[in-house]
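Changelog excerpt

This revision adds worked examples to the README so contributors can see how folded entries look when concatenated. The first example is reproduced verbatim below.
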Amino acid sequence: MRFHPEDCWLDLEEFERLIADGTKQKNPESLEHAIALYRGPPFSDIYEDWAIAESERLQSLYVDALEQLAEIYQAQYEFQKAISVWTKVLHAVPWHERAHRELMTLYALSGDRTAALRQYREYCEILRRELNLPPLPETQALYERILRGVSPEPIRVVELPAEMPFVGRERECYFLSNLWQKVCDGTGQALLIGGEVGVGKTRLVEHFLAGEPGFAWAVRLRGAAYADAPPYDPIFQVIREGLKRISHQSLAQLPTLWLSELAQFFSELHERFPNLKPNPPSPQGKSRWFAALTGLFELFSRERPVILFLDDLHWADSATLEYLSYLIAQIKAHRILLIGTYRVEEAQEGSALRTWLDKLPRDFVHTLGLSPLSREEMGSLLNQLFRQYDSAVLETLYAETEGNPLFVIKLVRSLLASGVLQRDPQGTWRLPATEISVPEGLKELVQTSLRRVPRRAHCVLNMAAIAGRSFTLPTLKESLHQPEEALLDRLDDLRSLGLIVEHEGRYQFSHELVRQVVYDELSTDRKRLGHKKIAEALEKLYLDRLDEISGELAQHCERAQLWEKALIYMLRAARRAQRAYAYSEALALAERALALFPKIQARSAARLRKTKLELLDCYTDLFPTIYDIKPSLEKLCAAIVEMIALAQELREKALLCQAYQKRAWIELAADQREAAQQALKEALEISQKLPDRSITARVLYNIGDIHAQLGEYSQALRCFQRTGELWASLGDGHRQAHALKNSAIIQLLLGEYAQAQENLERALSFLQAAADLRGQAAVLNNLGLVFCDLGQWERAHECYERAYALTSEVGDRRGLGVILLNWGTLQIEQGRYREALNYLDRVLRMLGEAGLKGLEVGTLSEKGRAHLGLGELNLALDCSTRAMQVLEAQHGMITQAQRFYFTHYQILQAHGRTAEANKYLQKAHDEVYRIANQITDEALRASFLKNVPINQQILYAWARRERF
């Protein structure tokens, strides 16, 4: 026997074909045949998600077919047939309000007033029992007319324009125009607009952008924050818009370092520059990342001024707000107008938003507080909506809404839809003399308006709310499995009701409040199933962009209770956030993913052991400095113990080696030095058994770093030298250069200046060959320190100058701060104290920016020295005291502490506070000998004590004190 599919007839296919034909041709016969095929919800005894979704889809098609058939019969005045069809609708959906209202009308038009009134009472009972709601105002109004014996007429709803009229705000628009003029003249501006929900913040900016002369040639970029969005999402939105409008030639002007940083997050850049390689991790990476983002915005603004409009900043993540602080500090030099909006109710005292707003420079960031419309402005709005209206309309609307524009528009739509707001024979719009029922607030008004959504559009509305702030037609089509034409019809229904808007191929709710109300009213199971379908749709549609949308997928999978998928996407999203230096957001994702493991079945958890190991590796990576480790020691210790156990169990030697290195840093933070050294020994032993010698090189580099942190300079030097030899044998000149640079830094601290200079010059040649501008700048900066200690001030100045130019080119703010600090020290050594203060004050202005806190001790201490040189003793003491407070808060984790103790000693001595001064001289002396006693090589110890200028000064002062 052979099966021939073409000989088969499938009722489901025929059902869908007949509905499509009946809808398109307005053919009642096709619709009748389709309805006859429907035998009730299929798969009613199957409780799988696919069965529930398919059953609901088919029932929706069935109800849609009934509605369309009833409309055809009503248009043909075949009332009895229409009554029969609407009755079938109620069998399927008992609370279908339109069906009840149509039946009331049809019964009344047929002369059966009793049946019409009974239908209303039955509906009220269903609503009370099932939903605990009253009927819509238009249903109540229809009942009143029938009760009075007035023949019902269909309510003719006036179509309000999709774009509501804009009124008032003259002062705000004038202010915006002035800011824009300054931008066009070459001075960037930042404006933040605050106001209550619905007051018109977004509408004000949209109107301004649409109507301001000269905007036609500006680059307008728009993004919006939303709850649970990935880090930097509003920034990424505007950048993607900007990348569509900029040429390859213009982009090529950006330094390769910046392009490589940006290409990790924008596939558009990888497509244009396929040979870009990721930048190596760096402690200064966040500065590099921020500089790259800002450099791109500056590039956008070179040919034409740029308007960056960031909406709803009350939902912005901390990484976005941190970057905006950085951007605002740079924006003045570029033709950029940054406009942000936020809800004032989210900026209460103690909130993250309030803290961020309070830290912004008040002399530069402009603010606007938006108030509701005045009575006169509301009158202007109504004049544009209705040419003639009774004064009671204005008074009632103003009393109910208090001038909130969103509330006004929603209430006007509701009153028109219910027929309460009507036009008399003379064309004047009036409200009834009796008191009208108005929902208490915006949320209640939105809930009422949602009940007017046609039944056929409910599935689209619900899925859109589940999808999130914005959605696309392909996503809806893939998740709902409906024809594109039918979906467009449903979207048109929702647009006509003012619930959604379209912008360049994407749809979004007219206001986030509308989406939230729709979402909140869905059942838990409905949300879970919807999130599952959206996740599956996104996976299918964006298979090549899963990393980019990993945060969105993680959220949908978690809410769909797809635990395994959720934690895998959370891991990807956490790694992505980590690459963007959004450590707090990455940490939250990693912790959420780890918390999912108890929800996963034992068999699945065993299969996911490797994933858990990678997740623990990610989690323990998210504390970039030892200062971040300290507050989380207990949790980190537990994570490392589990990571080591898993790595041993899975025989993942490379990750086991990594775990022991991390353990060393944790032990060091807990002041367990012997345990830290033991962990490093374990890591080194494991690495030496691995075929990849680069792992051993990295371990040695980290060991050297820890020895240097502890002041164990001779051990650190040996590690860096061995690291350099390994990289040389592997033919990696770039990494060899960094090992040479670190060896030179230790030699500089030991007073081995000739060797330090030689190694730095070798490193410089390697870095020049690799075109590593940042590395060259770091080497030149350290060469400047060598020459400064040797008293070769002109050569030191030349090195700092070259280092500063290179660092400016790559936009490394932290690097600039370090160079400026060293430059200030050079001026002090030459007795140029005022010039030194200029350099040091520039560093202090940078201290609040990303990753720059580590400069604080050195800068304050050197400022104290400069003021001391000028005889400004009180200022000197103030600066040095602040330096001591920061230093002592770091629990011995700042190198060259003896330098800062000695400066404080000198300043206290100048104040005549000898006893107190001697305590700090003691600390400086002890620190010198703490380090010296750890130097095992006699020659190096002697060099450290005799050749390093600051150590000479400390020992001389100590000897002098002992003598007297």
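The second example, added in the same revision:
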Amino acid sequence: MTVRPLRFARGRLRPLVGASLALISSAALTAQTPAAAPAPAAQEEVALDQFVVTGTLLPQAADASLAPVAVFTPMEMTAFGAANAAEALRSIPSFFGDASTELDSNGGTGRASANLRALNGTLTLVNGRRSGGFSDLNSIPLAAIERIEVLKDGAGAVYGADALSGVVNIILKKDYDGVEFSTGYGATTHGDGSQWQASVVAGKPFASGKGHVVVVANRFEKDTIYADDRAVSHSSDNRADGGIFAGSSTFPGRIDLTDGTQLILRDGVGAPASLADYREFDFNNDAYDFRSTAPSIPGQDRTSFHLAADYQVSEAFQPFVELTHTRQITDNGLAASPIFIEGDLLDAAKAGPYLPVDADTLDLVRYRTVPLGNRLDHFDKRLTRALAGARGRFLENWNYEIAAGRIRTEEINDLMHDVTVDSLLPEIESGAFNPFATAATGTLNGSSWDNTAALLRAERQGRVTDTTDLDMIDAKVSGPLFALPAGDLMLALGGELNRTRLTREVDATVKAGELLGFGSASESESRRTTRAAFGELVVPLASKDHSAPLLHALDFTLGGRTDRIAARDLRSGDSATFNSANARAGLRYQPVEAILIRSSYGTGFRAPTLGNLYGGSGWGYYSTVDPLHFTSGAEIPVLTSANSNLDPERSRSLSVGTVITIPAVKGLSLSVDYYHTKLTGTIANAASFYLKQNALDQGSSFVPGDPSTINPDAVFSDRIFRYSDGSIDYLDVTSMNLDRTVSDGLDFELHYRGTQTSLGRFSHTLAAHHVLSYDVHVLPGSPAESYVGRFIDPYADPMAPGSVPKWRGYYDLTWSLGDLTLDAKLNYVHSLQDDPAFVDLDGDGITGELAATNQGHGNDQHTIPSWTTFDLRLSYDCSKLHRWLSGVTVAVGAVNLFDKGAPLTLGAFNDDYDTSLHSNRGRFLYTDITLHF
């Protein structure tokens, strides 16, 4: 795939939006009749409280769940202006904290993951089963989704490993009847970020309704947005806003001398002939601003196909099959490759015709491969899910289901637009490449160079291929054991067996770390097998037919699950086994019909992943400030290794809530839920922990600014490697288990579905999340560090949870009149305290975080302002306009209508804003057309 050029012509959007607006305007005039027309059928079909919910093994309605469950249909998600499931789910107030998003540039792969309440323990399912690579929320198109159910509570007793803090269950279409074609196009008013999609959904019953088949095909394309085209991300120099300059000291025209002097070419000098052509390098004014060319939101292409079919041979036997395939391509660029010309390359430069200084005084030449363009991470991911099974009824009213399937994920990462030592060396030796010049071509000392041509000849690429195979089989039965006065005692039992095999293949270039602008990676091959048994019992103690005063209904639920997970490194033979038993108890009480009180308590666990245990080692960069303040800039090389001695993560979750309906006001309901979650053993990268603890252990003999006083015996000194000037060469780290994380908070939702009037129907939803506490204890006995109302980027501190806003919420208004529907949504994110490690308001070069080493004042604080955006969508069913328009629905909309830019976040690694909470896209206008046959 080649991502289309970014400079999008705005004229392509205007005619399409204009035509759609004109059509809807005329339709609105036609619709303004005083008759009280019924609401659109689609509106009437969304009976959310009738869906069978996630988080239980037994059928029950959404209003009977023991924990808050949010249900989203494609109609609701598109009303929010979402083009994919990730965008829709990020609107949920309890979605915050560290999570991969398709907005990530540095380190982004195009993947989007779920994270509820910043607890980083959300399990993603597809049709109630393990999702494998389809946990990437971008991998399934909206057209294939029937609904998404979000359980905002731990469910380890139901789903086993990974369901520590919540579950996202993506339910795919299986019984659609008819044909639907939809297409949509949009772009930002900044003239970039164009987006296009088209999908076809076709479904039909057969054999007199005993069977059904549905097929979905989708194509999606999105263009790149560059950092330089947005105010918040256009520069890596944030000093004017109270931050630091996180630029780079590596670019053409730079050399270091053996006495420690750092030099840069004087203005106007394209190629040096002598030392006189240089001046001293000043990082604060001369550093390279890598954001001038880097992308901010990567482009992505996706093609998806989904098929589901079933056939009822008899009531006892209904076989079914499911097949889903997605190919997703993401191009993510980094600034041109930085090169340290040292070793053999430096020897060749010293022997070459362009040497401008005495060879004995030259220590290092710095360069950046600007003529090759940005380094490119090209991700080509293919995901296939195939499942077959059968369900049916036996013994009159017992149900069973059994299924087996495989999910295969293959991701090829091509590392492009870079060079190696071996490819660049002959170009320097021949004189075709001048490593000292900023000018692309020239002649000096009788020799001529063409750096662009030389770099193109020296260009090399590497490849990393990750393949994951998930084989699974499960079975469950459910039904009534016997009748009680208040109803049937219900029981569900089941078992599950799944095996995951993970393989990483690395070509020789990457394995050896030869690409000068990318890190190295090692090969690995490992396997994990899970065997589980589970059960759930629902005991009705009172019902509306056998109620007493203040005892309209009372149910008790008890569930349990045992898991045995065996992990093995297939290369070394190392192995580990994790056993876990988890339980969940819940109570559902209605004193009167209008008031529901629900509570649950459960435990969960997550075994270390195969990558945690046996993933080998690899190089990466962390945006971490050196606590000893010897390293300029913000990126530190980190060699991360797997740790086969990790313990599993465990959780304990308590949830208590109420749902109140007001009989006097039809359609009005209020829900309030309190949660308290304790996580132990959270697995985290220890890079920032090493640095902080080492800084605190320096002792009284340490003198800021004097590298000779660094304490070699301070804790973790054997993991922190520094140059003679004190600057960090790299860190050597392994993952570790944290002691515990404790958090509690409140979820609120007020919903009013208005009645139909001559002015139409107005529906209102107000939803909010409030975090009461979020405390992390790194080690047993260590003091708690509170993250409430703070932003700490996990790229800077891998132990941090990301953003934890005190408040987050939205207000949604839907108005319908005849065939016209207007959706308006106000989104709100509370302000946050920025990471003090990147705040230097007084400009003294010492950030607030460095107070711990007696180098700073601790007064450097920056508040990330609250962020409020407004989305609008107007749709019209054109069927009544003309018979040729029967089944045609047209919509236009705006996401972030008032073009509210992402708030400046000085501690954010990705373009100075938090990609998990905010967006750098700006105002986005779009139009959709749907045809029903």
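Reviewer comment on example two: The longest strand covers residues 459-484. Residues 13-31 form the longest helix (19 residues).
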